[in-house]
Amino acid sequence: MSEVFTKSMARNIYYGGSVFFFLLFLALTFDTSNAFPERDHRENITPQVAQGKAIWEENDCIGCHTLLGEGAYYAPELGNVYKRFGNNKEAIKGFIKSRPVNGIPGRRSMPQFNLTEEELDAIAEFLKWTSEINTANWPPNIQG
Fold it and tell me: Which segments within 89-130 are labelled E, that is strand?
């Protein structure tokens, strides 16, 4: 290789790299768009799941928790909480009802939202639905 780096060499590297990464971007976009139909489970949305999502939003749960990696990191990830609680909606409902636990110094505590039994069923069903989303094994561990 010559010791002189010319403008034409720099231009060729720039254009070659641009074309390479543009083609890589197109290939990854194509692969992602082909994978989405296999991972989609919107047909499983029931009125109860929709009601649970509305309750999730009304109570600003995402202000403390993450859901599938999105949201605040103050409290635990809830995208896989159904699996962490042993695939048991009653355990989730019982946990929400038992909040807040006071008396543990330095520990964060979830507030009591005083949800009705119907609202608890809906939020548990919503959390069950989110745990069934194919996230390509994300988060990498069950604790989120």
Answer: none
